[in-house]
Amino acid sequence: MDVQDKPGLQAAPLAQAGGSGEKVVELYASGQKIYPRAPTGWFASWRWAMVWLTQLLFYGAPWLTWNGRQAVLFDLVHRKFYIFGVVLWPQDFIYLAILLMLSALSLFLFTAVGGRLFCGYACPQTVYTEMFMWVERKIEGERAARMRLDQSPWGLRKLGIKSAKQAAWIAMALATGFTFVGYFTPIHTLAREVASLTLGPWETFWVLFYSFATWGNAGYMREQVCKYMCPYARFQSAMFDKDTLIITYDAKRGDPRGARGRKVDPKAAGLGDCIDCGLCVQVCPTGIDIRKGLQYECIGCAGCIDVCNDVMAKMGYPKGLVRYTTQNALAAGWTPKQARSRVLRPRVLVYAAILLSVAAAAGLSLALRTPLKVDVLRDRGMPRIMENEAVENVYRLQVMNTDERDHTYTVLVEGPAGMALASEPLIAVPSTTTRAVPVRVQWQAPPNADKSQRIVFKVRDTRDASIAVSEKAVFLIPPR
């Protein structure tokens, strides 16, 4: 392959010596700035609906309250995750693993059905890029105006416009960084500290860090993140098959391409339906030409479908020259209904079944989770022999009340006949706290008793018998 055919490489000829030409291969080629046109249509409306939905959730959730505290708070300092009525502790790390499994399975399912749906409609990079481009269009104008502005020399007008855009971008980025940190530090406290200029160094760092990341990714890197940084673009083909709905150009119908007037009969002129207007390229946020077939740069935003349908309607041609379809449907000439009939194929059903099973198991586990956890640690010291010849072992019970109500628990011990608790059996534990309580167990051990006895501590709520936990332990008998 010649150097010119390799993307990302540039060849620069050197001065020729002795009639021989040499080339220097540069490993980096600066990208050309993309000025996407704003599409309108059914898919664009859905994309903006997802922008509103995701951002209302993101910006609004940390301001909600539940039981007198922040409804959604990942309190890393105190190692508690609050999600409305659920309080998760480090011992509940399994639920984070389940959440990651559900996310991966959902990605597999949605990709097998409709390609890069997540990328086109819900990915944070796509959402914030859409928001930043909306601000850019409002301040700098549409595509042609932005191109003219960038090509014009610097002056007061250009400086004012660019400054206004940057101010709006920075405000959005700071709001995003502040909100993100508000999920880990109580946002009301964070707001008061910002207002009084008493924000701590770590909170300041993370607010500025995430603000800078938002500003850089959505304002400048944009499609570069999707094309070169996101790993999903590289392995998406492994999740596709020939029955996956993808955005496709119908070459049989559209080629040969060519410009023509509305009154020209394309068949009489030997042309396809594509008028080669180039609008599908102009609306693409990654700058690709969908007419070249499936490409890893395509994020599935469907802007090309909207703009092509508008052109087809104006020309009086049927819509769907660029549409969601499958490779099998395109090759066989299936109707949209026939293509959709292949959606529920084996791999999709398997993904859906696994996803529903894991989600149901996780939901059931959360619903049946006991808001009480107990750990038993035996004292490192040797067991003691009391004056009445009874053997005493000391334990430490780590009682964790994961509920948001105060609870009082009763401690019982089960073991050989005659074994009894020699300390206070009632333990009061405030809401969402852990209390370490020393517990003494005594037993009048017979001379022939084993030196190690299995016992069980039973801790149960004094008001609700369903809240109970049993933990095994070992009772040791010292040599006499």
From TrEMBL:
Residues forming coiled coils: none
Q: Which InterPro entries match?
A: 4Fe4S_Fe-S-bd, 4Fe4S_Fe_S_CS, Cyt_c_oxidase_cbb3_FixG, Electron_Trans/Redox, FixG_C, Helical_ferredxn, Ig-like_fold
> Does this entry carry the keyword Chloroplast?
no
> Quick check: keyword Protein transport in the entry?
no
Q: Which residues form the 4Fe-4S ferredoxin-type domain?
A: 265-293
Q: Which UniProt keywords apply?
A: 4Fe-4S, Electron transport, Iron, Iron-sulfur, Membrane, Metal-binding, Transmembrane, Transmembrane helix, Transport
Under PANTHER family, the record lists: FERREDOXIN-TYPE PROTEIN NAPH (PTHR30176:SF3)
UniProt xrefs under NCBIfam families: ccoG_rdxA_fixG
Recorded protein name is Cytochrome c oxidase accessory protein CcoG
- Which species does the entry assign this protein to? Massilia agilis
Show the taxonomic lineage: Bacteria, Pseudomonadati, Pseudomonadota, Betaproteobacteria, Burkholderiales
